[in-house]
Write a structure and sequence with these properties.
mainly alpha, 62% helix, globular
Length: 109
């Protein structure tokens, strides 16, 4: 349970920074990985797929879970070619972030 709580706290801190105007160029996974040690990183790697899969907008790709707003572009290509936190794509990423916070927080109780 402790690991779920730690991940929830890291995700919440990322959300708080964004809400306070921080600008990020990395996706959620990389932002989390920058803030945790290797043991917790292993836990994150093992559990995030389950969290992604129960998000109703999951792209089907665990490496690029946010769907492309443009059906002509794959989630991977959209991730590489566009800003991750602005526009429709940014809104989807924030929805995923909220989902992840909720999912990990519920696992702590």
């Amino acid at each position: 349970m402790y690991n779920y709580e730690q991940i929830a706290e890291v995700l919440t801190s990322i959300k708080n920074k964004i809400d306070n105007g921080a600008i990020f160029y990395l996706g959620i996974c990389r932002l989390v990985e920058c803030k945790i040690d290797s043991n917790l990183c292993n836990f994150w790697a093992k559990t995030r797929a389950d969290a992604f899969e129960c998000w109703d907008k999951f792209s089907g790709n665990w490496l690029y879970p946010v769907p492309s707003p443009d059906k002509e572009i794959t989630p991977e290509d959209y991730y590489i070619e566009h800003n991750k936190w602005t526009g429709e794509y940014g809104k989807l990423r924030m929805e995923l972030l909220d989902h992840l916070i909720d999912w990990y927080s519920k696992k702590t109780h």
